[in-house]
Amino acid sequence: MKVFIGSDHRGFEVKNHLVSLLTEQGIEVVDLGPDQLDPDDDYNDYAVKVALEVQKVASEGDTESRGILVCGSAHGVAIQANRFKGVRAIAAYDTELARIGREHNDANVLCLSADFIESSDIDNIVNIFLNTAFSGEERHIRRIKKLDA
Length: 149
Fold this sequence. Notes:
Blueprint: E1 2-7, H1 12-24, E2 28-31, H2 43-59, E3 66-71, H3 75-81, E4 89-91, H4 95-105, E5 109-113, H5 119-131, H6 138-148
Parallel strand pairs: 1-2, 1-3, 3-5, 4-5
């Protein structure tokens, strides 16, 4: 599994924490920025970078790799990432939303809120997202195909 990760300035600290955590767990992490805190950056730029990488690996048949995006609310990065065919980004504010997003929607990008999720919960949300399998149920497959149509 490879994880592509990016954030804006509001998610910068959370992103850096997750890069360290996932690397320590032996997961290959590709940090797509930012490299330094810039209060004037735009979440769109990093959401596009992550979405393009996830889109690329998914089109090559890699169903294991994922993306993680962090901004203030999680909404902006989710909206931006979902503009790319084959990218299924979810904003998950707790472990149950992360689990359902994986099981039912085969979500491949997790969007996190640096402002509205307790830092103590973020690690658990990421763990559930990365370790929950897609159910593969026909109804879920049918719905995902409609997303890409």
